[in-house]
Design goal:
The complex is a heterotrimer. Chain A is of the alpha+beta class. Chain A is built from 10 helices and 17 strands. The chains are: A alpha+beta, B mainly beta, C alpha/beta.
Chain lengths: 374, 97, 469
C-alpha cells in the first residue's frame, strides 16, 4: 500500500467508527477502517438502540444540546442511508418513557429532571412527569404497580443491529476500505503521516480518528491524547417476536420493528463480555413483568451481555491532538443516538482537519484535568 | 403422510383450531398433528411461510403451536391430554397469550 | 411427576440428558453413593437412540432391531440405581460455577451441582437444500422418533435423501414396519472411498462392519437407490415433488414426504454457553468440546459424555458416560467402589474402532453443507445463503458479526440448525477454515424460558442494584 493511499484511518469498526468513516467518505476522503475480529468486545452488538434525549446532560449541560442536535438530524440521516443502501434502519421518534414502579422511584426521577433543568445554559427538552392515568393513555398495557413516569417527545429508537449492518454496507458502497482483524498495536507519526502497526502489517494515513471505544484509553496516549474510560457490563434480555403492542420505547424496555422485546439497562463492574449474571437478567425480567404483565408468558429467546463504552464522567470525548496534528478522538457511550452527529457533523470537521470548537469544545478530555484540579 | 402401525392404544381427543382430532396416549402434540395429516402447524413471524414439525426432538422449533391458550409451545415436547385445545400459530405471537 | 419445587437445592452430580451416556453415568454415580439427578426434557428417557424405550407402541422387536431394545437395560439400571430421574425438565442454563437452571412444567429453579455431566448428545447436521423448510420435508431423525415413540410410519409417497448410518437404518425400519419408501437419494460422494479406504481394516474388525453390510443389503433389496449431487424440494405451501440430478439429467419425483439426513453432530449449545472450550473436527466437520481422557472439559467439574463429546454412537456413549461418572465419584467420594475403569476403556476403544472409516465414507459433500443462492440457511429468521455470502464479502469475518448483521442464529432454535452452515459459508467465502472462523457465542437461556420463569429466580441485593438505580 502506497504511503498516501488513505487520507484518514479510522480505528474501530463499531457504530462510532463506521458512522465517522461514512461521513468522511461523503466528504471525499479516502478512508480505511481498522477493526478487530469477530470476537472483539463490541458494544455495537449489544446496545439498546435508543435515540434518547431525556436525562442527557446532568453535569454537562452542553451535552443535552449536542444530543438534541443528533436526535433532530436522525430522520434525515436514516433517509440518506436508505437511499444509499436500500436498507431501512426503522428510525422512529414517537417519544419515550421512564416508568416508575413506586412513588419513591417517581420522586427520584422527578428530582433528576429538576436538577437537570435547573442547570444554567440547559436547553429545554420538554420532559414532563406524568401520573399513572396519563401514562396509561399512551401505554395501555402497563401493570398496576406503575405509578407514573417521565415522558420526552424527542425520544426515539432504531433497529441498531440493522443500523450497524447498514453503515457497513454504506461504507462499502462509498469504497471505504474495511480491514477486520487489524487490531492496532501502535501508532506513530513520521514525515507528516501516521503509521499504524497492526497484527497484519502497517497502514499509513494522513490523519487518524480514534473510534475504538474503550480501547481509546490505550490508543489515545500514542498520539498525545487521552481517553479516561471506565468500562462496565450491561445485560439485555430479548424475547421472541410478538405482534406490536408497545408504541413508545421505555428506557428499559422496547419493542423492535421486528417484534422482539428488548429488556435491559443493567450496570455491573465487569469487563468479561462472555459472562452473564442470571440474577441481573432475573431482575430485568421481574421489572418488565411488573411494568407490562402481559409479557409474563412470553419466551425469552436470548440474552446479550456487552461492555459499555463509558468515559469516566459518562460524556463524550471529541479531541484533536496538539502534539500529533491530524489525530482525533471520537469516543462516547451513545453511539446510536449520536450516530447522526458523528456522520454529519464530526466527520466533516475531521475531513477539514480541525474540530469546530463552538460545537465540541466542552467535550475535550481536558475537562478531566480541570475537575481533578478543582 | 403417516399411518399408525397399531391402532390400539388409549384414544385421546384433542382439538386443532376447533376441529376434533383423534390422538393416542403417548402422542406428543406434534406427533398427533402428523398422524392426523395436518399439513402445517404455524406460519413464520418473518415471511408468513407455512411450517410443519421438522426434527421432532426439541431442536428446530418448527412445531411451535398455541396449546390451551399459551403460544409458542414446542409441540414435540408436549404430551397430548384429553380435551387439549391446539391452535395453529399464525405469524408473530400475541403478547398475553 | 417431579415438580421443580421437589428438587433439592444441590446435588453431588447433575446429569443433563437421558440418552445412553446420561443413563449410564447416572446409574454408576448413584450406585457409588453420589446424590444424583438426571434431567431430560422429553416425556421419557432414552435419548434419540432409545427414544420412548419402555413406552414404544412398536411391539414387533424386529422392526426397530435388537440394538434399540438394548436400551431397556440401561434405563432399568438407571431407574434402580437410586438416581432421581426427572423427565419433562429443560435445562436452559449452566454456568462455570455449575449452577444449573432448569424448568419443569413452567417452573424454573437454580440447582447447585458438585459435578456436571453434559450428555445432551447429538443433533442432525443441517441439510440446507432449496425448499427444506416446506411442510412435508422432515429430518430422518424426526421420522424415526415418530416411529419409535408413536408407531408412525410413512404411508404416502416418500423419498429419503442424504447418507450416513441412521438413514439406512431408518430405511430398513420403515420397510420392516410395512411403511412406504419410494426411493433413496444417496448424496454421499463416491470419492469419499479414497479417504475411507485406509481405515477399512479397522472397520472390518469393528462390530459395525457386519451389521452395516447386512443393513445395506436389506435396504437395497427393497428400495431404489439413486446417486445424486443436487436435490431440491419443490412446492408452494407444501412439498409437491423432489427435483434432483443424475449425471446431466434433471429428474422430478412427486412426493408427499422428503426425509433428509446427512449425519449427526454434537449438540454443543449448553456446553458452549457454560464456557467449555470447543475445537473444529475436520473429519467429522463439526465443533466438539475439548476434553481429557475422563471427558472432563476445560471448565473444572463439567464433563461432556456421549455423542456430545464427538460422534461415536450409542454404545460408545454409554461407556463414555461411565468413565465421566467414575471421575465424578473419584472427585467427590474417593473411597467409593466403582467398576474397573480399564475394562470400560477397552470396551470404548473397541466401539470407536470403525469410526474413522464411517466418518470419511459418510462425509457430506461441500455442496450440501455450503448452499448458494436463495436457499434458506437460518430457518428461524429466514436468512439465505446469498445474504450470508454477500455479507462475508462485505468484510464480515465471523458468525457473531454475521448474527448481528443478518439475525441468523437469533431465532428460538438459537443457531442449532444454522450454526455450522454459517461458519462454513463464511470460511468458504473468505478463503479460511471453520476452525479460524469459530462458532456463535451462546448465552443462557439455551432453550427459551418465559419472562415469568426468569423473574421468579432468586435475586441477590447486588444484582437488583445493578438494574434498579
Amino acid at each position: 500500500m502506497a504511503a498516501d493511499d488513505y487520507d484518514v484511518a479510522v480505528v474501530g469498526g463499531g457504530l462510532v467508527g463506521v458512522a465517522t468513516a461514512w461521513g468522511l467518505a461523503r466528504e471525499g476522503c479516502r478512508v480505511v477502517v481498522l477493526d478487530e475480529g469477530d470476537r472483539a468486545m463490541r458494544a455495537s452488538r449489544g446496545n439498546f438502540a435508543l435515540v434518547w434525549v431525556q436525562s442527557k446532560g446532568l453535569g454537562l449541560p452542553e451535552y443535552a444540546g449536542w444530543t438534541i442536535r443528533s436526535s433532530n438530524a436522525w430522520a434525515g440521516f436514516a433517509q440518506t442511508l436508505k437511499e444509499e443502501t436500500g436498507l431501512d434502519v426503522a428510525f422512529q421518534r414517537p417519544g419515550g418513557f421512564h416508568l416508575a414502579l413506586s412513588e419513591k422511584e417517581l420522586e427520584a426521577r422527578a428530582n433528576v429532571l429538576r436538577r437537570l433543568h435547573n442547570q444554567p445554559g440547559i436547553v429545554d427538552y420538554k420532559t414532563e412527569i406524568l401520573d399513572r392515568a396519563q401514562v396509561a393513555k399512551m401505554l395501555p398495557d402497563i401493570g398496576s404497580e406503575v405509578v407514573g413516569g417521565s415522558f420526552c417527545p424527542l425520544d426515539g429508537h432504531v433497529n441498531s443491529l440493522r443500523l450497524f449492518r447498514t453503515l457497513h454496507a454504506a461504507i462499502k458502497t462509498r469504497s471505504v476500505t474495511y480491514l477486520p482483524s487489524h487490531r492496532v498495536e501502535n501508532i506513530t507519526k513520521e514525515g507528516g503521516e501516521f503509521r499504524l502497526a497492526t497484527e497484519q502489517g502497517e497502514i499509513r494515513a494522513g490523519k487518524v480518528a480514534l473510534a475504538a471505544g474503550n480501547a481509546n484509553m490505550r490508543l489515545a496516549p500514542m498520539v498525545g491524547l487521552e481517553a479516561p474510560m471506565k468500562p462496565e457490563r450491561g445485560q439485555i434480555v430479548v424475547t421472541e417476536r410478538l405482534r406490536p403492542f408497545l408504541n413508545h420505547p421505555v428506557v428499559t424496555l422496547r419493542q423492535t420493528d421486528e417484534g422482539t422485546v428488548m429488556i435491559g439497562d443493567s450496570k455491573e463492574e465487569s469487563v468479561d463480555p462472555a459472562g452473564l449474571t442470571i440474577g441481573v437478567s432475573a431482575t430485568e425480567a421481574e421489572r418488565a413483568v411488573r411494568q407490562f404483565p402481559l409479557l409474563a408468558n412470553v419466551n425469552v429467546v436470548r440474552t446479550w451481555s456487552a461492555i459499555r463504552v463509558m468515559t469516566q464522567d459518562g460524556f463524550p470525548i471529541y479531541d484533536e491532538s496538539e502534539t500529533h496534528p491530524g489525530a482525533f478522538t471520537v469516543c462516547c457511550h451513545s453511539g446510536v443516538t449520536l450516530a447522526a452527529n458523528h456522520a454529519l457533523t464530526v466527520a466533516p470537521m475531521i475531513a477539514r482537519g480541525a474540530l469546530d470548537k463552538s460545537l465540541v469544545a466542552p467535550f475535550s478530555a481536558r475537562r478531566f484535568h480541570v475537575q481533578a484540579a478543582g | 403422510m403417516y399411518k399408525r402401525l397399531d391402532e390400539a392404544g388409549t384414544a385421546v381427543t384433542i382439538t386443532v383450531d376447533g376441529r376434533q382430532i383423534a390422538a393416542r396416549a403417548g402422542d406428543t402434540v406434534a406427533a398427533a398433528l402428523i398422524a392426523a395429516g395436518i399439513a402445517h402447524c404455524r406460519t413464520t413471524p418473518v415471511s408468513g411461510a407455512p411450517r410443519a414439525p421438522y426434527c421432532l426432538m426439541g431442536v428446530c422449533f418448527e412445531c411451535l403451536v398455541t396449546v390451551d391458550g399459551i403460544g409458542s409451545r414446542q409441540g414435540c415436547l408436549v404430551p397430548v391430554r384429553e380435551g387439549m385445545a391446539v391452535e395453529t400459530q399464525v405469524g408473530k405471537r400475541e403478547a398475553g397469550r | 411427576m417431579t415438580k421443580a419445587s421437589d428438587l433439592a437445592p444441590s446435588y453431588d452430580l447433575v446429569v443433563i440428558g437421558g440418552g445412553p451416556a446420561g443413563l449410564a453415568a447416572a446409574a454408576l454415580a448413584a450406585r457409588a453413593g453420589l446424590a444424583t439427578v438426571l434431567f431430560d426434557e422429553n416425556p421419557g428417557v432414552g435419548g434419540q437412540i432409545y427414544r420412548a424405550i419402555g413406552f414404544s407402541p412398536v411391539k414387533d422387536r424386529t422392526i426397530l432391531g435388537e440394538d434399540y431394545w438394548a436400551g431397556a437395560e440401561l434405563a432399568a439400571e438407571a431407574k434402580a440405581s437410586g438416581a432421581s430421574i426427572v423427565t419433562g425438565a429443560t435445562v436452559w442454563s449452566l454456568d462455570p460455577a455449575r449452577l444449573v437452571g432448569v424448568s419443569i412444567a413452567g417452573q424454573a429453579r437454580l440447582i447447585q451441582a458438585g459435578r456436571v455431566i453434559i450428555a445432551t448428545g447429538s443433533l442432525e447436521r443441517p441439510f440446507p437444500v432449496s425448499g427444506w423448510t416446506l411442510p412435508g420435508v422432515m429430518s430422518a431423525g424426526g421420522a424415526q422418533t415418530a416411529l419409535k415413540a408413536q408407531g408412525l410410519v410413512p404411508s404416502g409417497r416418500t423419498v429419503m435423501a442424504g447418507g450416513g448410518p441412521l438413514l439406512w437404518l431408518l430405511a430398513a425400519q420403515i420397510m420392516r414396519a410395512g411403511g412406504r419408501l419410494d426411493a433413496i437419494l444417496d448424496t454421499m460422494p463416491r470419492r469419499n472411498w479414497l479417504r475411507a479406504l485406509a481405515h477399512l481394516p479397522d472397520f472390518v474388525l469393528s462390530p459395525y462392519f457386519a451389521k452395516g453390510l447386512k443393513l445395506l443389503r436389506e435396504v437395497r433389496a427393497k428400495v431404489r437407490v439413486i446417486r445424486t449431487d443436487r436435490i431440491e424440494a419443490v412446492g408452494g405451501d407444501r412439498l409437491r415433488e423432489v427435483v434432483f440430478t443424475v449425471g446431466a439429467d434433471e429428474r422430478r419425483m412427486p412426493a408427499d414426504l422428503l426425509l433428509l439426513h446427512q449425519g449427526v453432530v454434537p449438540n454443543v449449545n449448553l456446553a458452549i454457553a457454560a464456557g467449555v472450550a470447543h475445537a473444529w473436527n475436520e473429519r467429522q466437520l463439526c465443533f466438539e468440546p475439548v476434553l481429557d481422557g475422563d471427558f472432563t472439559s476445560s471448565v473444572p467439574g463439567i464433563a461432556v459424555a456421549g455423542d456430545g463429546a464427538g460422534i461415536a454412537g450409542g454404545t460408545a456413549a454409554a461407556e463414555r458416560g461411565r468413565i465421566a461418572a467414575i471421575a465424578a465419584v473419584r472427585a467427590l467420594r474417593p473411597a467409593a467402589a466403582v467398576p474397573d475403569l480399564q475394562t470400560i476403556r477397552q470396551r470404548l476403544q473397541r466401539e470407536e474402532m470403525g469410526r474413522a472409516f464411517l466418518d470419511w465414507l459418510n462425509r457430506p459433500a461441500d455442496s450440501f453443507r455450503q448452499p448458494t443462492g436463495d436457499t434458506i440457511v437460518c430457518r428461524c429468521e429466514e436468512v439465505t445463503a446469498r445474504q450470508v455470502r454477500d455479507t462475508a464479502d462485505m468484510g464480515c469475518e465471523g458468525p457473531n458479526q454475521m448474527k448481528a448483521f443478518l439475525r441468523c442464529g437469533m431465532g428460538p432454535c438459537q443457531g442449532r440448525l444454522c450454526g455450522l452452515t454459517v461458519t462454513e459459508l463464511i470460511a468458504a467465502q473468505r478463503g479460511t477454515t471453520p476452525a479460524e472462523v469459530g462458532y456463535y457465542r451462546l448465552r443462557p437461556p439455551v432453550k427459551p424460558i418465559t419472562l415469568a420463569e426468569l423473574a421468579s429466580l432468586p435475586i441477590a441485593e447486588a444484582e437488583r442494584k445493578a438494574v434498579e438505580r
